[in-house]
CLD34 protein (Casuarius casuarius), 209 residues
Amino acid sequence: VSTSHLQLAAFAFGTVGWIMCAISMGLVEWRVWHVDNTTIISSGIAWVGIWRVCFISYLHVSPGYKEQFCHKFGVLDSFVPHEIYAAQGLLLIALIMGLLGLTATIFALRNIYMGIVDKTLITRFFLVGGFFYIFSGLCVLVPVSWNFYSVTHNESIAFPPSYYMPSSPVTQEVGAAIPIGIIAVILLLLSGTFSLSYRFPVTSNTIMQ
């Protein structure tokens, strides 16, 4: 047990990183657009996520949405940029890989804390968990970096008229989802490193004379 403190930390970091990955995926605040036409976008600010785009409007542009209008991206929408499609797929993969990493770590820690001394089994579970953590972290890193690049270069999106969005903002800035994703990447990569660093303790037999 005394040799698995880092791996216990890996499980804790991995759990928090996995949760933050899920939060980042669900948030709409990936890219914050500032627009000059406030006729429909009343606040002059719109939020572009990887699943939908939202803004506050005092007009009834969509029944049932009150003052907030959201429009979901369709699977066949050709206007959606590649970095958003990539984020959708990679973050789903990251969640699955992260969950598998947590499962493998739980099994390894269970064996240790229950006194099941099986060097091969414990070591393999930590190795598998570590690889899953690292792969999950890389799957989050790609869309986070790609969308960050798009924001810093103020890239546009050719929204159709039904979205009530301009094709390009006056300026845009990073939303809350991207820094949350960056923290998730750091925690998942740390979890993977800690899991892969596990070494089964070597015991020596002492002959008493």
